[in-house]
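sry for the spam today, last one i promise. struct tokens for design, 216 residues
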């Protein structure tokens, strides 16, 4: 099983990602949390945890018994520290991943991050996500950048609409986003690809296979 470091594990989407990884026969989640008191939630479920603050030096999160094979970045500042966390925090983790020979880095980004200057809202946040995405693309790491539409708390449908550029807005459940991110960790799926997702009528697996074929 591959060890997956999940940055932002304590967030709403992060917890869903960790639970999916825990249920998987291929992946073992390592929940990266910022505060000591956040560890109890995951340790109660027998999920490995590691302390790490994206605003500081994150290199120590790799100094654990289990070698980290891949990284899934699902952290967010909630609009409070977009430069410090969403941008620079992502860069810190990308650099540390490079130094520790991580096989793949999956980034949870946002629709609109390709052209933040055109956004009517959340322009600073989207600019930070754009800068982080571009840094990852130029890092030399194998990556996938997933850009969902507006997040909802609806149930899992296991169906999405996916394109490199959808040219329309839309929403998608956190459950479907988490499912997409976890599937994207696969070695054969969406390598060095950036794509947008909203709710749709195509099974997540089929939609991702299309990305792989286009980018192969």
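last one done:
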């Amino acid at each position: 099983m591959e060890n997956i470091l999940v940055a932002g594990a304590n967030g709403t989407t992060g917890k869903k990602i960790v639970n999916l990884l825990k249920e998987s026969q291929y992946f073992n989640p390592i929940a990266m949390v910022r505060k000591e008191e956040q560890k109890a939630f995951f340790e109660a479920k027998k999920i490995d945890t590691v302390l790490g603050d994206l605003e500081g030096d994150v290199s120590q999160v790799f100094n654990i018994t289990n070698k980290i094979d891949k990284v899934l970045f699902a952290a967010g500042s909630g609009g409070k520290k977009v430069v410090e966390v969403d941008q620079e925090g992502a860069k810190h983790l990308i650099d540390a991943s490079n130094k520790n020979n991580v096989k793949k880095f999956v980034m949870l980004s946002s629709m609109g991050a390709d052209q933040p200057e055109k956004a009517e809202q959340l322009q600073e946040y989207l600019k930070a996500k754009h800068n982080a995405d571009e840094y990852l693309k130029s890092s030399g790491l194998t990556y996938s950048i997933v850009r969902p539409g507006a997040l909802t708390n609806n149930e899992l449908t296991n169906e999405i609409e996916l394109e490199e550029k959808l040219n329309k807005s839309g929403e998608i459940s956190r459950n479907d986003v988490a499912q997409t991110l976890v599937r994207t960790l696969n070695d054969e799926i969406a390598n060095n690809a950036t794509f947008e997702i909203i709710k749709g009528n195509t099974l997540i697996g089929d939609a991702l296979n299309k990305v792989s074929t286009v980018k192969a």
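The CA atoms of residues 58 and 93 lie 6 Å apart. ok im logging off now
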